[in-house]
C-alpha cells in the first residue's frame, strides 16, 4: 500500500502528536510501507503537525571520530605501530559532513535539512529543528557523559510537551534510555575513546553508560507500557509508541537503577574513572 504525506499527517494526529509539541523520533521507514516521497514526506509531515512552535529531534550518532579498530567485533590483533597509522587517518567529527546513516535513512535525510541544528558532540550528537533548537543543542561537552546532565539529551527533559515517538521500532532504539541510565546511581560504565575534532584535534577518553545490547531497554520499555505511560497507534503500517520524554526518563532511571543494583552493578563513584 502507498502512503502520502497527508496520510502521515492524519496518522500522527490520531496517535496524539499536537501543534507545539516537541517530538524526538526514532523510525524504521520501511515499516510504514511505501511512502510517496520517502524520508522527505515523513519529515514534512512531522513539521506540518507540530507547526512553527514545535520541535523535531532525531539521533545524530556518528562513527568517524572513532578508531575503526574499536568498532570491530571482535577487535583484531594489531601492533601499536600499525594502530598509530590507522589512527592518524581518522578524520574526526565534522558537524556538516559526519553522516548518521547508521541511525537510518530518515535521520540521515534530516541531518542536512535546512535549519537543522546539530549538537557538537563527536559521537553522540542530537539533531534538532524548530523552536528552541539552538538553545538546546548549542553546547555538548565531549569530555563528560555523552547523554548525561548538562547535555542536550538532558535539556530536552525540561522542554514542555516533549515526547518520544517510536515508529516501527522497539525500545532498544530509544536513545533517551541512555540518558536515563546516565543519571542512575547504579549505571553500567564504559569509556569512549575518540578524536575530539578534525585535523590535529586531540584524542579524548570520556565516561559513558555501556551499550545496552537489548539487556534492559526492552524490559524497561515493557514496564513503562504496563504503567500505562504510552499511547499506541499506527503510522501507515508501522506500529508506533508515543510517550512523554521526561516522564519516561524519570521512570526508566529509577527502574534501571534498581535492576542494576540487583544485578550487582556498583553505585557509580568518580574514582571508577581512571585518568
- For the secondary structure, the number of strands is 11
State the major sheet.
7 strands, mixed
**Total tally of structural domains:** 1
Distance between the termini: 56 Å
Q: How large is the share of residues in beta strands?
A: 15-25%
Strand arrangement across the biggest beta sheet: 5-6-4-2-7-11-10
Give the structural class: alpha/beta
Mean pLDDT metric: 96
Order of helices and strands: EHEHEHEHHEEHHEHEEHEEH
Radius of gyration: 19 Å
Task: Give the helix level as a range of percent.
Answer: 25-40%
> What general form does the structure show?
globular
Give start-end ranges of low-pLDDT stretches. Answer: none
Q: Helical region count?
A: 10
Describe this structure in words.
The protein is of the alpha/beta class. It has one domain (27-36, 52-246). The chain is built from ten helices and eleven strands. It has helices at residues 5-15, 29-32, 38-50, 80-88, 105-111, 133-137, 152-155, 176-182, 217-226, 245-262, and strands at 2-3, 22-27, 34-35, 55-61, 117-118, 124-130, 162-167, 189-195, 203-209, 230-235, 238-244. A seven-stranded mixed beta sheet has the order 5-6-4-2-7-11-10. The chain is globular and about 55 Å long. It starts with a strand and ends in a 13-residue tail after the last helix.
Amino acid at each position: 500500500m502507498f502512503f502520502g504525506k497527508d496520510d502521515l499527517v492524519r496518522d500522527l494526529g490520531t496517535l496524539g502528536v499536537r501543534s507545539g509539541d516537541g517530538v524526538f523520533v526514532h523510525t524504521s521507514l520501511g515499516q510504514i510501507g511505501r511512502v510517496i516521497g520517502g524520508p522527505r514526506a515523513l519529515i514534512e509531515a512531522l513539521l506540518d503537525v507540530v507547526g512553527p512552535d514545535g520541535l523535531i529531534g532525531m539521533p545524530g550518532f556518528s562513527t568517524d571520530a572513532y578508531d575503526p579498530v574499536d568498532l570491530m567485533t571482535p577487535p583484531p590483533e594489531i601492533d601499536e605501530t600499525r594502530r598509530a597509522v590507522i589512527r592518524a587517518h581518522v578524520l574526526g567529527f565534522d558537524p556538516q559532513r559526519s553522516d548518521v546513516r547508521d541511525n537510518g535513512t530518515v535521520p540521515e535525510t534530516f541531518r542536512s535539512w535546512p535549519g537543522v541544528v546539530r549538537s557538537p558532540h563527536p559521537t553522540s550528537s542530537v539533531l534538532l529543528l524548530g523552536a528552541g533548537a539552538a538553545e538546546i543543542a548549542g553546547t555538548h561537552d565531549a569530555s563528560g557523559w555523552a547523554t548525561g546532565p548538562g547535555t542536550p539529551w538532558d535539556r530536552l527533559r525540561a522542554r514542555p510537551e516533549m515526547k518520544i515517538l517510536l515508529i516501527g521500532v522497539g525500545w532498544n532504539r530509544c536513545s533517551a534510555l541512555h540518558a536515563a541510565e546516565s543519571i542512575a546511581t547504579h549505571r553500567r560504565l564504559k569509556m569512549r575513546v575518540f578524536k575530539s575534532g578534525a585535523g590535529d584535534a586531540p584524542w579524548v577518553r570520556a565516561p559513558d553508560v555501556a551499550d545496552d545490547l537489548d539487556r534492559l531497554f526492552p524490559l524497561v520499555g515493557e514496564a513503562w507500557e504496563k504503567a500505562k505511560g504510552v499511547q499506541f497507534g499506527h503510522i501507515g503500517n508501522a506500529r508506533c509508541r508515543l510517550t512523554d520524554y521526561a516522564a519516561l526518563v524519570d521512570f526508566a532511571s529509577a527502574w534501571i537503577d534498581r535492576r542494576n543494583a540487583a544485578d550487582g552493578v556498583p553505585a557509580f563513584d568518580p574514582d571508577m574513572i581512571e585518568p
